[in-house]
Design brief:
Nucleoside Triphosphate Pyrophosphohydrolase, 9 strands, about 160 residues
Length: about 160
């Protein structure tokens, strides 16, 4: 989101050059810059001891592809805490370990996706209300079940397969 008006006083913002940042929206009244904002989210590939990957079916996202667990980071929460919380909330699965996998820009929704690969014991899945269904799938099959190459889901499954 690019600010056009000051969120404090409502004055129109001008552009001011701020060092290496270049032109930044600036409130002349409050004397404060307002940098562009975007959502920070987590996306987590969960794998079990058999090398299977946890995939979700969520019709509100796609009727064609399966998804990895993802969600927004809450204020005051670390990315690691958000990943563990989201996996548990959406599936009831407890993560035993978590490894940072990289960051990914999701331009379609102006989101920074912080990716993880998690380990969990294979257990029953208890999908939340935002999950139509979920299951454990062989990783080599999962690569064709998630969004195609160029997506964050595809990148994480591919990374997992390379590390297996």
């Amino acid at each position: 989101m690019r600010f056009k008006y000051c969120p404090e006083c409502g004055a129109p913002l001008s552009a001011r050059i701020l060092g290496d940042e270049g032109r930044v929206p600036y409130c002349e009244v409050c004397g404060r810059p307002y940098f562009d904002m975007f959502s920070s989210c987590v996306i987590t590939l969960v794998a079990n001891e058999s090398g299977e990957v946890l995939l979700l079916s969520q019709g509100y996202i796609s009727n064609k592809y399966h998804n990895l667990v993802s969600g927004y980071i809450s204020p005051g929460e670390s990315a690691e805490e958000a990943a563990k919380r989201e996996v548990f909330e959406e599936t009831g699965v407890e993560i035993s370990s978590l490894e940072f996998a990289g960051t990914y820009w999701f331009a379609k929704k102006d989101m920074l996706m912080i990716g993880f690969i998690a380990r969990a014991d294979k257990s029953d899945i208890m999908p939340s209300g935002e999950v139509d269904s979920a299951g454990w799938y062989a990783a080599d099959k999962a690569i064709d079940m998630v969004h195609p190459e160029g997506s964050v889901s595809h990148a994480l499954v591919k990374l997992y397969l390379e590390k297996m």
